[in-house]
Structures are given as C-alpha cells and as structure tokens.
C-alpha cells in the first residue's frame, strides 16, 4: 500500500509510555497529570448525563459552552469572538489543529512550522498536500529563542500559514507581547494566516501574562486560536478543545469539521460549560504549576542535569551532556529502563532529527511522584 505519510511511525509519546509501563518507570514522559481532576467537574458531567444531554449536540458545539469560551477569551484577552459564528468545540486540540490545516492549506501551499514542533502539525500539512517549511528555533546557553528573522526570511508568495505555539511544547518557552507585533509585521500586506496552538495558555509563570494571538487585533483577524480543556482541567483523556477564528475562516473550518467528526461529546460539553462559570480553577493554574516547576527544578539543581529555562507549559527541558554522549532517543530509553524515570527526547520534534543533548520531563505529577523521580535522577 502506498502510504500517505511515509515519514510517520508511532508517536514518541506512545512509545515512551509503553516503555515506562513495561519497565515500571516513573513516567515523566508523555504530558498528562497523574492526579485526579476536580470531583465537582466530574459531578457536573454526570449531572449533564442525568439531565439527558446524551444525543448529538449542535455540530458547532453546545451553545452554553461556546458562550462560556467566548466570555472567557473576552475577559482574559480582550477579544470579542461571536459565540455562534466564531467558536467551534472540537475533539481536543489535535482535531482543531488538523481540521484548521485541512480547511485552509491547498496542495502546494507552504506552511512555516517552528521547530522543535509538536508532532501533529507536520503530518496534517502533508495530508493537506501542503509543503512544510521548517524553521528552527535558535538554541544557545540561555536556551531556545524564537527565530523571527528566519521566519521572515522563510516567507514566500506560496506561504499560506504560519503555525505558532505558546507556551511552547517541548521547550517551555513563551511568546511575550512584543513577539505578537513582530509576527504582525511579518504577515502585514500578505494573505498569510496564523494557526496558534495555545493549549498551555494557563501555564505561564513568574508573573507574566499569556501572549495570546487574540490579544492582537490585527493578528486575531487572520488567525485560528486553539486550546484544550484537557490541559486546563487535568482531563487529557476527555479530548475536548476548541478553536476561535474570525467568521470567514470559521466557515471554512466548519465545512471540514462537520465531516471530520460532526460534533463532540455532549455531556462533557455541558458539564464543562457549567464548570466554567467559576474562573478560579484556571486563574489558579499558574501558581499551582509554578510550585511544581520550582519543586522539580530545585530537586535537579544539584544534579548533573543542566536546567533550561521553563517559562511556561508543564515541561522542563534539561541538557544531559555532563552525564552521557548518547543520542537523545537512546538516552531517554536508558533513563527509562535503567534509572526508571521516563523522559521524552526532543529530536522527534524536528523533521530531520537534530541532536541537541536535551530531553523533556513532564512535572504535571503528584509531589510524591516528583520526589520519587528526583531521588532517582539526582543520583545519576
Ligand atoms: N498541542 C500541544 C502543543 C500539545 O502539547 C498537545 C497535547 N499533547 C496538543 C496540542 C493536543 O491536545 P489535545 O489532547 O487536546 O488533543
Ligand atoms: N501533548 C502530550 C505531550 O507532548 C502528548 C499527547 C499525545 O500523546 N499525543 O506529551
């Protein structure tokens, strides 16, 4: 069979989680919390089921949830999306990202993807017949930096889309407000669209605010902004997310969405809509995860791992050059099988694997899980 995706195998997250389970390792690889979500949220979903929300919801998403999402974005980022025409509820961020790409990328269109990149973007561009134009982040002693000059240089008349991700998986770097203006300057006078993956929007640390693309009116007018309740509410297994975009873009998005999935889980949409009435859970998230980040960093401070900055997300990248010269995938496997702590190599986040001597740990774990892992990592 001629494959549509010759470069694609099984994702690194699936592989490392299987290896962690097989070797009884503490799994700091795949990004998901090992603690429970709020029981009140579970109760609200159960209540929605008892109330009879068990049939197809509208294709675009339950109105109550779309309104809650629009109200949240308006309150936090100051952009008023029309809940009917400009918000669609999706089966997680993954579906929103792939559907947006399929909706706007025509065969031969170029899509600029900043590497290291979350693994779903490039295969989606390839399925659409688009051409991936990878642009690598700069990496120096101080960590990863947005390569805006290289992004500007990569723009051609065929550029259809630029994919950005802030806070950024796997590097933990974040855009600041000034970056939004730089991006706006790059796309000014072109027809280039922006796809902004903001699933870690509530994990920005040290008192900074999240630089959502929707804060910048000129960018918002040409962007899809994607988020996921899986990250925000500690429910990665629920696979509910959303996309916000101006109406003309959303018309195209929905043409694909209706045949991609049609609509997504009704009782969870109603439960989440009710839960969103209280902003505290997401407003408290930066402090909640910053404490875990600091605990994890403190635990590694005296070790032979070198900590890179972690300004956002629930990931911590480390250099391991003082421990080993192994390639990243081999080192992550060794950590998992011998040290019994699973990590994710960064190399698969590049189209052509690049070795930087860096692996990623997820700190969205119970304190005791982090303590167990740190005890093992600090001894290496
Ligand atoms: N984008 C990024 C950057 C992610 O880290 C993830 C979660 N792994 C996703 C998208 C997918 O989110 P979801 O689980 O809601 O599909
Ligand atoms: N986003 C998660 C991570 O980066 C994994 C999601 C997945 O397994 N596809 O670890």
TrEMBL record:
- Tell me where in this chain the Aminotransferase class I/classII large domain is found: 24-376
Report keywords, A-Z.
Aminotransferase, Pyridoxal phosphate, Transferase
Q: Which GO terms describe its cellular component?
A: cytoplasm
Matching Gene3D superfamilies, A to Z? Aspartate Aminotransferase, domain 1, Type I PLP-dependent aspartate aminotransferase-like (Major domain)
Q: Does the keyword Transmembrane helix apply?
A: no
Q: Which GO terms describe its molecular function?
A: kynurenine-oxoglutarate transaminase activity; pyridoxal phosphate binding
Protein family membership: Belongs to the class-I pyridoxal-phosphate-dependent aminotransferase family.
Name this polypeptide is given: Aminotransferase class I/II-fold pyridoxal phosphate-dependent enzyme
What organism is listed for this UniProt entry?
Answer: Pseudoduganella dura
